[in-house]
Design goal:
9 strands; three-stranded antiparallel beta sheet; 277 residues; alpha/beta; Rossmann fold
Length: 277
């Protein structure tokens, strides 16, 4: 893990902007969960999921061709999520949200992560823009358990998943109890759109960004659609932009970069806000 020094000046600038903001939006990526033991995707950590350059595996097209391989991969990854716990960065964002709401002001957290750790840490307004590891859905659009509105909790099909774990094959793949079609993880793949399922709440996310005074990016590589869309909106409106990440310089010069681990920087920011009242 990268070890960097604190950035007192960057922290002070962020605290000042947050204090004056009527509406705050935080956008988190995989980096915030690294301290919880969950590898990133494009990061420099040894376990980075896509570090071997196989982004095509994270697509619906690849899943449909190789469902056994993909279900095995995702179930292994989801098991790691089950053992993970929120780290100080997650808890700090929940504290910042409580502080902002305590002043009667708006706060929205948009996460690219599917691990559920923000909610576990106590964050209230969380938009899981890339879906959830806790759910699956039918591949057939229009099925009650499929897009654009349906899904099913993984714990509700645990017996089916366990049968697949014990003997992974085409014959044991999870299928929809209503129509018999294949079930898939309830996540956004690289060849899909944010508008593909209402649970992604992309319209809510973009509305929150349009009214935000400050956008804070945490642990993101700025390499996905939601970061580009939110940046375009914020830049067009002249909003204050910050990024907390120990690696990967932000793509725009207008972004104030705190080159720190989020589990160190965010608790300090939360403490400063609480101390300032």
């Amino acid at each position: 893990m990268v070890d960097v020094q604190p950035d007192p000046e960057g922290r002070r600038a962020l605290v000042e902007r947050l204090q004056s903001a009527a509406s705050i939006v935080v956008i988190t990526g995989a980096g915030i969960s690294l301290a919880s033991g969950i590898p990133t995707f494009r990061g420099t950590d040894p376990g980075a999921v896509w570090a071997d350059g196989v982004l095509e595996r994270g697509t619906r097209a690849y899943f449909m061709k190789h469902p056994v391989e993909r279900w095995r991969f995702y179930l292994e990854r989801f098991a790691a999520f089950a053992d993970a716990r929120p780290n100080p960065g997650h808890h700090a964002l929940a504290r910042i949200e409580a502080w902002q709401r305590g002043r009667g002001r708006d706060f929205t957290l948009i996460t690219q992560n599917i691990d559920g750790l923000h909610a576990a840490a106590g964050s209230r307004e969380v938009i899981e823009i890339h879906g959830s590891a806790a759910r699956a859905r039918c591949v057939e659009r229009g099925c009650r358990f499929g897009a654009p509105r349906g899904s099913v909790e993984l714990r509700a099909i645990e017996d089916v998943l366990e049968a697949f774990r014990e003997a992974p094959s085409v014959n044991t793949l999870p299928t929809c109890e209503l129509c018999g079609a294949l079930l898939r993880p309830h996540i956004l793949w690289f060849d899909e759109y944010y508008t593909g399922h209402r649970d992604y709440r992309v319209d809510d996310a973009l509305r929150s960004v349009k009214r935000a005074g400050v956008l804070l990016y945490v642990g993101t590589s700025f390499a996905v659609g939601i970061t580009e869309m939110t940046l375009e909106i914020a830049l067009a409106r002249g909003r204050a932009l910050f990024s907390v990440d120990p690696v990967g310089e932000p793509p725009r010069r207008q972004i104030t970069w705190l080159k720190e681990q989020s589990e160190h920087a965010l608790p300090a920011v939360a403490d400063a806000l609480a101390g300032a009242g």
